[in-house]
């Protein structure tokens, strides 16, 4: 720990010296987790909607091309979903790391 | 017979830029194409929901990114990892969203053209609204939303009509016809035109002036909104509502051909032109009633139809008509290049002459060994009035879309006899705009069907929904999504066995002639360029076009050994100054 973290006091809209014992300083990283999970849910919704689309009767080759595109788009959304899961994990890890650092900083008085 | 070589060889090549994406913006519909339009529209709506979900995911990820960065100093390594992970998802979401938008664009386009092809106004409206257009955007509103481009396909069509309307208004004013000239233009029409300015359509929905007895009544057009097709109702809603005109009720216009006393005829013409009165004889929604003379008489004068051919070869009667009309001789018959391809045939239409004094059409005689076949080539509207000397006018349009005979159809039928087409001879008919209506009418005409072997019909930019062409005639219709004229029939094209319609995005085909004419998607050159493109890019999606072309060439017997002679005919309503 060193004084490198003193910049953080300018990020929070409140006085960290009086609020450090509460979870509030970690709200932003908590929100980041929520947002990442929301993105995950939206991707799930997109995939679900896309999968439900049927193009059986659309004209011949055009329908086949559109269905092929639909399959590729589904794969791409699945890839985004997997990445979103990684992002949720990474954001949670970041929150945890920040939490540990903040507790340490409060204990040592060094931000 | 005097034969002179044609100066230009007929098969004009259109100078056009064709967007490579045209193949994605082209749909051929026919009876052999089974499409569940409802499903397609639902797919387009769902695809829009996918775009919306991905947009929300993107917003959430942006927020996550911002909030993660807050603790970059507190936990730099973990923050860097998290930011990188979020950024990866953002990139993927952006990429997939772009792809879904393009997919949606294609689905929307297909849904629009299929719904339009089926005359299914409600389905059309759903996609139209979905793509960000909406009723209030008619005539120049802002286009927003993911599918804004789809809306502009139709907006462009409206605006091209709007431009044309302005031209006519300007012509009326230029000729001094307003108030003190040869005829009194409908004041409502001009007031509307000036009031709505550059963002609306000059409509004339009220008629408060003349009585039928003021002049010889030739027709009465009555619109019963309750019986009108859904497409008609939609157009009325979309176009009339922004101007504060209610969609309900029935309206009647009394029409005469006399400009001096009855502006109603012109009003009906305008309404037809605007798509507000897509006359449909078969639906009962709009009927043309009153004194509609037989096809042997002029609807203007009650006299025999004046068709003129100044070549002595075709008979003294023709010469007599010519003398009476005082028209300049078109030219003697000429050898010309054989239009083996359909695009070459279409390109001939634009070279036909037209003046306020007369219209013109062409008949081609093809000789291949012992086989003789014929092409009848008909141009579109050339005069925006009704009942004047040139029968290629709005009166012919009204009659044509209503399925009634016109001076133009009568003149062409007479010329087909005179030029020497024998019973049983093989014939094709082609036309652009009004010429397409006339082509469909002639091919539907029982007298023509019984007398000749009409093997093929080709129309471009024409409202042919009321053509009743038998399966023995292979009919191909070309309709640009940026051209509202083909929609003026307010109904789907009929298919009795061998009719197909090519729906395409006219914005993907740019020609120099289009820019010069200002006619936009309705210009003949765009249709000719499309035909050329399809001839050069045969694909599964245009297999009906390939089959139609093959049938045409085989039945007409066209080939390298064919010799072709061109006969021009001028048409005029005799006794009309």
Describe the structure.
The complex is a heterodimer of chains A (111) and B (577). Chain A has 111 residues and is an all-alpha fold. Chain A is built from three helices and no strands. Chain A has helices spanning 16-19, 27-52, 60-108. In chain A, helix 2 runs antiparallel to helix 3. The radius of gyration of chain A is 22 Å and the shape is rod-shaped. The model of chain A is unreliable at 1-23 (pLDDT under 50). With 577 residues, chain B is an alpha/beta fold. Helix content of chain B is 40%, strand content 16%. Chain B has helices at residues 37-69, 76-117, 121-130, 148-174, 187-196, 230-240, 264-274, 316-325, 342-349, 394-401, 407-418, 434-444, 446-451, 512-517, 524-536, 543-556, and strands spanning 4-5, 16-18, 26-30, 217-223, 251-256, 286-289, 307-308, 334-336, 359-368, 371-378, 426-432, 453-460, 474-480, 499-504, 509-511, 563-571. In chain B, strands 1, 3, 7, 8, 9, 10, 11, 12, 13, 14 and 16 form an eleven-stranded mixed beta sheet that branches. A three-stranded antiparallel beta sheet of chain B has the order 5-4-6. The two termini of chain B are 33 Å apart. At the A-B interface, helix 2 and helix 3 of A face helix 1 and helix 2 of B.
